[in-house]
Design a protein that fits this description.
Layout (H helix, E strand, L loop, with lengths): L12 E6 L11 E5 L13 H37 L23 H33 L3 H36 L11 H9 L8 H12 L6 H17 L6 H24 L4 H39 L3 H17 L2 H9 L4 H4 L7
Antiparallel strand pairs: 1-2
The structure holds flavin-adenine dinucleotide.
Length: 361
């Protein structure tokens, strides 16, 4: 466009090709060619990356939400299929004695896939809302201290939310595909689409490996570690407040164990990451997952507390709260122990990871 608003010569920007992608076919991705194109400065000179990150941080939260959303849809389909598909008999005697076989939801290994999915989805949903609350506080709180804490948390949680929710969201989508057996691999059933669509979320808006580096390289150290120390303080306070609550005990014990391990991993990074940056890079994936698991342990403790409160105050007959507590117990007993493996791996540092010469690959 000319300065006076009239139509100018065409700029040298053209679409070279529409990419053929593994998934997200409803969203066109193209190659853009810039042939002697004229560029226009947006914002201040040399502040482009800074401006881009305003968009990028929002986008990373949105992509984390995609990871959870794909997983939730995959789970809803898998749960319905598991109640419908008849195959084999329950190990503890027929549950559908008049039928030719039992529905596959009676099999413990099918339950494992469904419970992994369900406990992830509900934890992820809580984590998204919890983080969104800090987004609101950051923008709307009249209290400067509250805004500061909210800003610190948003910075710290963004790479965790993006990478943990998309790594696990993809894993859950493939597990839900597995619930379908052979039908999971047949396009007609639609499960392969969730797997294809969820795969991109681990890659775009910064590959998940980069989220791990952002967490250990930038976010932990920002403002002298103010954000991570505030998070540890919040967890310590919650644990101390509920330490003698016998109904909440398994959730508090799980949270305490995860928090202690995250703290140990953080201390290990402080002691070993600065002297050899490869140690920080080697630990970053496991540290991020240890962080995600700890955040989920906190979410489950909060949800268990709310459910127990609701049950004691008129909600005893509502199956919602019982299901919440049972799903939370599953998370604590069968998912949360993964923290120990992540801590053990991250503490090995970069030695065995980097030992092989590049030309040996
Ligand atoms: C469908 C689709 C849509 C997209 N849409 C957009 C868009 O709208 N706008 C846009 O700007 N971009 C877009 N992208 C680009 C996307 O953001 C990048 O592909 C993504 O951030 C990864 O960058 P890369 O492809 O350059 O991978 P690379 O940087 O080459 O990374 C390759 C691998 O190496 C790892 N790696 C790279 N550097 C390091 C490091 N320093 N330390 C450790 N590991 C490292 C990565 O984690 C990754 O596993 C899109 C991509 C796709 C596939």
């Amino acid at each position: 466009m000319n300065a006076d608003g009239s139509l100018g010569a065409r700029n040298g920007v053209s679409c070279g090709k529409i990419e053929e992608k593994m998934g997200i076919h409803g969203n066109a991705t193209c190659v853009l060619n810039y042939d002697d194109a004229t560029g226009f400065l947006i914002g201040e000179e040399n502040r482009g990356l800074h401006a881009m990150f305003t968009m990028m941080n929002v986008a990373r939260l949105g992509v984390g939400l995609q990871g959870y959303a794909q997983s939730e849809t995959a789970y809803q389909n898998a749960a319905a299929y598991a109640k419908d598909r008849l195959q084999g008999r329950s190990l503890t005697g027929p549950k559908n004695a008049d039928g030719p076989a039992d529905p596959i939801i009676v099999h413990p290994d099918v339950r494992r896939m469904l419970m992994d999915a369900r406990s992830f989805n509900e934890g992820a949903r809580a984590f998204v809302f919890w983080t969104a609350l800090y987004g609101d506080l950051l923008n709307k709180s009249p209290d400067e201290k509250v805004r500061e804490k909210a800003g610190d948390y948003m910075g710290l949680m963004t790479p965790v939310l993006k990478a943990y929710l998309t790594d696990k969201g993809y894993q859950t989508a493939t597990n839900c595909q597995q619930v379908y057996g052979g039908h999971g691999y047949i396009e007609e059933w639609g499960m392969s689409q969730f797997v294809r669509d969820s795969r991109i979320a681990m890659i775009y808006e910064g590959a998940n490996g980069i989220q791990g580096l952002d967490l250990v390289g930038r976010k932990l150290a920002a403002n002298g570690g103010r954000a991570i120390f505030a998070f540890f303080n919040e967890l310590d306070q919650f644990i101390a407040e509920h330490d003698d609550d016998k109904d909440l005990k398994p959730f508090i014990e799980g949270l305490k164990s995860a928090k202690d391990q995250l703290q140990e991993g953080t201390q290990w990074l402080m002691a070993n990451g600065m002297s050899n940056f490869d140690n920080a890079g080697a630990a970053s994936h496991d540290y991020l997952h240890l962080f995600g698991l700890t955040a989920f342990a906190y979410m489950w403790a909060l949800m268990a507390k709310a459910s127990l409160h609701a049950k004691a105050n008129g909600g005893a007959a509502d199956p919602f709260y019982d299901a919440k507590l049972k799903t939370g117990r599953y998370f604590v007993e069968r998912v949360l122990p993964e923290t120990a493996a992540h801590l053990a791996k991250l503490k090995t540092g970069s030695q065995s990871l980097m030992a092989l010469a590049a030309d040996a690959f």
